[in-house]
Amino acid sequence: MSGRIERAFTRARKAKRAAFIPYITAGDPNPERTVVLARALERAGADILELGVPFTDPIADGPTNQRAAERALSRGTTLSGVLGLVRELRYSSELPVVLFTYFNPVHAYGMARFAVDAAAAGVDGVLFTDVPVDEAAVAHEALKRVGIELVLLVAPTSTRARVKAVRRLAGSFVYFIARAGVTGPRTSLEEGLEDQVRLVRKLAKARVVVGFGVSTPEQVTRIAQFADGVVVGSALVERIGELGDVPELPGEVEAIARSFALATRRK
Amino acid sequence: MAPLEELTQAWQEARRDRAFRRELADLLENYCGRPTPISHAARLTKHFGGAAVYLKREDLCHTGAHKINNALAQCLLARRMGKGRVIAETGAGQHGVAVATAAALLGLRCRVYMGTEDERRQALNVYRMKLLGAEVVGVDAGSRTLKDAINESLRDWVTNVASTHYVLGSVLGPHPYPAMVREFQSVIGSEALLQIRKQHRSLPRLVVACVGGGSNAAGIFSAFVPYRQVELVGVEAGGRGTRLGEHAARFAGGAPGVLHGTRSYVLQDQDGLIVQTHSVSAGLDYPAVGPEHAWWHDSRRVSYVRVEDGEALDAFHLLSEFEGIVPALETAHALAYVARVAPRMGSGEAILVNLSGRGDKDVTEVARLEGVAL
Ligand SMILES: Cc1ncc(COP(=O)(O)O)c(C=O)c1O
Question: Which end of chain A has fewer CB atoms < 10 Å from its terminal CB, N or C?
Fold first, then answer.
């Protein structure tokens, strides 16, 4: 189990906060900027970084993240390139990194080789958007051997049996999808989210972080009261897309991220 | 996953339910015009000077292609599941038209996703879908073809799953789709097996079908798979050439991978990114292939060959002129392979081709490609 992820949750809880977990797509707007952006997010108060591996066919993503993946791919970002970026980040930072990836790039890389290289680069967790728990045993085994945790998704439509299956493979946390659908900003939160999160925590016997569609500090504050962590993605990615590769990019991203980080306080 | 489990269960219940089977059989007969005949292509046979060529006439189904068999069945299933809205992806537009038709018949709301490149080259079908009351949404991402329309359909489905059934149009995607769509298309093979035995008085030597996702091929092959003496050939789109990106020949240029929830042969680069495909025919222009075809390929039960754009266009004209049937460009790929092998076969042998669809939708695109002003 990754020490870095575990420590990040403990630190946040002691500070009476939910963990703040920003998402960006690796290589967006270009690979040279990714480490700089990660450091900016860390300064803003990120506890864990969720780093997207761009894919040609991101079926779990809304338009914002789709465009980010297109930008990253057009700059030649590949899975091995992303591992290189994590390695580079590790020269200057202990920020835990969870890769958010589609399965095919890892399949092409080779699961066993990927696990070894990812661990060597300093990756702490891996989330596959398109691998259901029934198919996750091989990945779990390969990653466990090198000390990387598998992060599994739980949807509002997941059955109890499925959440219990998740429990057997999950590491220190599971990722609860706040609302059925794809990534992207939403104006409202789902009714009954709090009860769902509590139920998932009980059945999965793991911390629960909430993501997909969390796009304002007010939503973060509401979720932070009952979840162990909050993922904010599209709101940051949208801004990166608007600004592009300008000198003030890291500063701007840091400022928005800080407004989200501050919103994770528990009342 | 929950929607797939719900769908699997609903399908399993429906296929055991006599009332469901009866309603489907009735619609296939009295609405779609099944059984479709097989025609002996006498002039073509003579022209080739070899094996006797028989055509399984899916082009005579209502809406003009085999796609209606699956679309009607899945729309009945959607109604049974209490879903008032159906969505579909389409490449050539034939599946989209079929779903729009079934939705109109059964009173369901319908939205069809279609790549903008396909909207251009299959414009007739776009308007047909609109006439049938469907909403057509252009997908302007990636290669702007079938793959991208599937991406968008999957996104819509996971967002609206409570109200919506996704009518996938081929033997693709996650379970239960490949098995379910094959079953709904297997009517082609069951009919053809009886018909060819009656008309030719023996089994064919060879059964040929084009393979996009692989539904018309799976539908006709499924009945013949147990007969080892019958050779089965699937024809993929060879596009403009053998370079990656220039074709949609998954078995020639692809490697095992996972796309749209299925592990199969996928056209990809060394980093596992899906590559662009090209084919003159929108219905074959897809970088992966149904998983059962991968199994038939690896177990060597079916051989897969490639036919390039030019050869398919020649076959398009050949069938039109010799048999008075304008085939779909997808189907023309299967016919082009027949043109290659029929002359080398004995006159007592028979080739059965799945004539998966008619070519009205392709007339303007063929004219454009050949520089004819309409
Ligand atoms: C007439 C016709 N044949 C074949 C196909 C290819 O699909 P499949 O391989 O699933 O039969 C299409 C798809 O649009 C089609 O319209």
Answer: C
